[in-house]
Amino acid sequence: MHVDFHYDIVCPYAYLASTRIEALAARCGAEVRWRPLLLGGIFRHIGRTQNPMQAMSAPRARLNLLDMHRWADHWGVPLQMPRAHPRRSVDAMRLCVAADDATRPKLSHALYRAYWVEGRDIADRAVLGEIAAAHGLDGAVIDRPAARQGLFDATAEAAERGVFGVPAFYIDGRLIWGQDRLDFVEAALGGAPERDTAKSRGGRVRFFHDFASPFSYLAATQIERVVEAHGAQLEWAPILLGGLFRAIGTPDVPLFEMNPPKRRYVARDLADWAAWWGVDFRFPSHFPMRSLLPLRAALAEPRLTPTLYRAAWAEDRRIDDAEHLAPIIAEAGFDPEAVLAATADPAVKAALRANTEAAQAAGACGVPTFEVRSAPDAEPMLIWGQDRIPMLRRALDGWRPACG
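Above: the chain sequence. Below: its structure as tokens.
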């Protein structure tokens, strides 16, 4: 088997993936085919801004930067954010296209090291000429029609495959995106990725969530098991996601703001994660849903939380009005009249507002968000995303990356 690795030197996540993909493929007896592209060309194709960080809310940009450095710390990979990032990478990517299949991986590693470790300007022809010569290439190939057209064609091929960002992996007709999906890549190549196990006991997790989010649902199916395995305490903290989004300047339904290729990918990615966790998943026919009432119900009776998530995201049942919510509460063994009456209690309403404000104060940019303390006196670590549960496990084991 083989895996096509679509990449651009300018992307830090593609750099991180480049440090792992060859060893992963070797474990599976597979070949890596390095496929350079121009990320800016992909962004133009899908109508995305050339610098996605500029379009992010401040909390999300902060967590993205932390996330990048946490992955580098986790894998023991050196990474320094260049002062002038993002730099123009078109010449570097033409150089990669011009290299033969045997030279391209070594050349790409050298370019990644120059950009993300040494802080060199890969838009500088002198820098590129030096790196090219070290790999037996004439730097002048950058300006030759074959390199120009080759990069254009490689970018167009990636776009045709549905690539909307890097790193992207293409295996037997299947697209997998992100260095955080390498376990999926390994499984697709026939390997058996290892799953983390608890190594310590104790700690506390405050779990900010909202029934309106499919990612929150997936996290909710795992959080109790993970916390219990570590002997930690779990605090369910329902928040009104729309309120958080309005406070930090994020669209109410980010899924609707995604470009079409990414939206299609995310739909399949959700199904892939459900399969990975071994849980049922069905995108509801009434999305987006109003979650105010079920959130208040979960505050009134926290034990309802898994039932409400399952009803909405596995059984396609409405949970956003009293008529549909009452029988679900009854089936879970609780008194629907008492629970629904409690949703009107000023104290319950205040608790939901307080949770939402606490999430914002902690720096959350969405759900699920985990506020983790590995010990009572430890500084909290904020982790965003159900796909960061392995990072949550490490945090409960006492992992404290230097970046925070």
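The two ends are 39 Å apart (CA to CA).
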